[in-house]
């Protein structure tokens, strides 16, 4: 297991970093592929709720958010973009309800609608749409995405290592029983420090020291919230991992869960400052 995890990291991490560096259509393909696989895994999880979701339309709508982010101006640059976004959201809601109404069944259909909307909006809008918007930010998009994943990865790693080494007080949540208070605090501290150091050297003209500290702390907190949210889905479904596509690391949902809430937070925080 250790060697499978290590090999996956050695192969995938440099590839992901290289795609982020170059951006453009390569980054669009990377994020679109990620949300596509995440949606397929999510639909498979739905089977454990006695609700079988066909992933074809949800996956297409999920990728649609990525295409909107890539080909349209950002909402902060062109307010008209919001009209297209709200129109696309309307399509998503119409699909979620109309497909269940068309079946002509009642039992369990409200749960089906909820599952569809949750998967499409969290994976497509929260994660995919905002990751691409962040990379599209003029001049600093590359550094912003590196700030996001660097802070999250370091925070998660610190939480895991410190929690495993000295963690004695459980977080008292059945959703993720291995998490400890010591590890969680360590993740917050390390994430904040990483953000401060990174912004000091690479984004000092854009992000102040105070904002860097606040961003690091909130990214660490929201990253763990995203991790626990996906853990909630998996616990409810009674599975350990969302998939097995990445050897030793589970599925794409397992690897990208920390970005579900952090990507939109970072984008809108930067847009307001």
Report on this model:
This protein is mostly helical. The protein is 76% helix and 0% strand. It contains ten helices and no strands. The chain has helices at residues 2-22, 24-46, 56-71, 80-103, 109-136, 141-166, 181-202, 209-237, 252-256, 259-272. Helix 4 packs antiparallel against helix 5 and helix 5 (109-136) packs across helix 6 (141-166).
Write the layout of secondary structure elements.
Layout: H1 2-22, H2 24-46, H3 56-71, H4 80-103, H5 109-136, H6 141-166, H7 181-202, H8 209-237, H9 252-256, H10 259-272
Helix pairs in contact: 1-2, 2-3, 2-5, 3-5, 4-5, 5-6, 5-10, 6-7, 6-8, 7-8, 8-10
Provide a count of the helices: 10
Tally of extended strands? 0
The major pleated sheet works out as: none
Q: What integer value in Å does the Rg equal?
A: 19 Å
The amount of helix comes to over 70%
- Which class do the helix and strand fractions yield? mainly alpha
Q: Which outline best applies?
A: globular
**Sequence stretches where pLDDT stays below 50 over 5 or more residues:** none
Q: H/E element string? A: HHHHHHHHHH
Estimate the strand proportion. under 5%
* First-last Cα distance: 44 Å
**Average residue pLDDT:** 88
